[in-house]
Amino acid sequence: MRLRHIEVFQAIRQSGSVSGAAQLLHVSQPAVTKVLQHAELQLGFPLFLRVRGKLQPTPEALELEREIAKVSESLKSVRRLAQNLRNNPGRTLRVGATPALALALLPQLMPSWLTRFPQSGCELSTHHTRELVQGLMMRELDVGLTLKQPDHPGLAVRTMTTGALVALAPSGFWAGSQAGVPLPIDALADTPLIGLSTDDPLSALLEHHLAVVEPPPRIRLAVQTYPLARALVEAGAGVAIVDPFTALGADPAATMIRPLAPVLPMTLYALTRIDETPSHPMTALLELVAVQAGELVKQAGGSGRAA
């Protein structure tokens, strides 16, 4: 089937008639009829039968429809990519980041970047990692920041900094002045713990370490983003294991931060398209991200290493 055959087929399926398809496609009825007949001639079987004045798909057409839907989605992606290539402003750097990183890192470093590049603009957005990958490949983003290393042949992955997860608890949750003192994983036994979504890149690592804790932590709340976990801790709902960037954004009067023992490592990655050389503004932004992220990791009690 040709693309025009597919367009006519879908228009008839949507409208139920040749006349309706002609209106949807802004062509004449004879033109739709001609394309339909040509498609059926090439296929060697009819696509529609007239039943009580309506065109009903044949069993063969219904089988084809599943594959046609895939082709249609691919065409939409092609059109979307073409539009992004046409409309992409040459002086605007489009940066995507997971919610925690967008809130903790980008606001602090953007003033410096804007000062260095007064003629450039920057568009900031928040996405989960799989959306960052899609946005990069569709050229809706120029760079993505995430704690998860994606496996995609079209992406270049650069380490910005490394560090460790920390425990964030309501102020006074542990007796004594223990902020900054390493917290043994065993100390989380029977603790009200705010769980992480199974989609979280560090969820499996945390579950592995908690598996030997007896009695296990009491997880009654689970979240998809670290900022939400932080808000729950601030409200006194329990303890959360989060990245240091999120932890440092919490209210210091209402919370306390403790590194974990053993260390639960985390890495901040920058994602770009592998077939493109980063522009000078992008390179400068990533340098600022690496420095800022490394400083925040150290401040939270980890041993950050900037790229």
CATH-derived topology of the largest domain? D-Maltodextrin-Binding Protein, domain 2
Helix share bin: 40-55%
CATH-level-4 superfamily name of the largest domain: Periplasmic binding protein-like II
Radius of gyration, Cα only, in angstroms?
Answer: 27 Å
Q: What average pLDDT do the residues reach? A: 87
- Please indicate the percent range of residues in DSSP E strands (runs of 2 or more): 15-25%
Q: Compute the number of helices.
A: 11
SS-derived structural category: alpha/beta
Question: What is the count of distinct domains?
Answer: 3
Report the order of strands and helices.
Answer: HHHEEHEHHEHEEEEEHEHEHEEHE
**What is the tally of beta strands?**
14
Shape: elongated
Domain HTH lysR-type: 1-58
Organism: Jeongeupia naejangsanensis
Family: Belongs to the LysR transcriptional regulatory family.
InterPro entries: LysR_HTH_N, LysR_subst-bd, WH-like_DNA-bd_sf, WH_DNA-bd_sf
